[in-house]
Write a structure and sequence with these properties.
It is globular, with a radius of gyration of 16 Å. It has eight helices and six strands, in the order ββαβααβααβαβαα. With 176 residues, the chain is of the alpha/beta class.
Length: 176
């Protein structure tokens, strides 16, 4: 897997997913493996676009489940071709939704896969509707655990905060 800074790579075609991927939990793993598999099927590189630190850590001082080097290591074993890491800082926050779209266009995505609450750009002005104006977009549903609850980084952070590390581990699929 090749690792790039934001805006530092151009590809002739790709399949892209975008997100914080904090913890690279079982839900993320399902998505990332699917992107890698679809990329191989379409004969295009698979790309994860992620952030360091995760937005919740930046805005809410939330615990980070996996530092960037660990996040990259975990993603690498899932079969991706490229990982783009954007420095999530005040400069990144000034980027407009259209500037972010311009950056994505450098990747020439045949498809972008995001969650249903995906927002981007300064003040979160970009949404899925805007993204669909420029790209083929597939919106994925959340992944649920065997107990029927959504697997999310927020939920895992709450479990760790309560000392329920075994349950957090079962959702992560990695040690806490």
């Amino acid at each position: 897997m090749l690792i790039h800074g934001a805006g530092k790579v151009s590809l002739p075609r790709s399949i892209v997913t975008i997100g914080a991927f904090d913890g690279v939990h079982r839900g993320h793993q399902t998505l990332i493996k699917g992107i890698a598999q679809r990329g191989r099927m379409l004969k295009v590189p698979s790309v994860v676009y992620t952030f360091d630190p995760p937005p919740r850590a930046f805005f809410q001082n939330a615990r980070t489940l996996s530092p960037i080097h660990e996040k990259i290591r975990r993603m690498q074993v899932l079969g991706l071709d490229h990982c783009i890491v954007a420095a999530f800082n005040q400069n990144f926050l000034q980027q407009t939704a259209y500037q972010f779209i311009d950056e994505l266009q450098q990747l020439n995505p045949v498809e972008i896969v995001v969650g249903k609450d995906f927002r981007f750009g300064r003040n979160r002005t970009g949404d899925i509707t805007l993204l669909k104006e420029c790209f083929k977009v597939r919106v994925i549903e959340p992944v649920f655990c065997s107990k029927g609850k959504v697997i999310s980084s927020t939920r895992i952070r709450e479990l760790v905060g309560r000392g329920e590390n075994q349950q957090a581990f079962s959702l992560l699929g990695w040690p806490v």
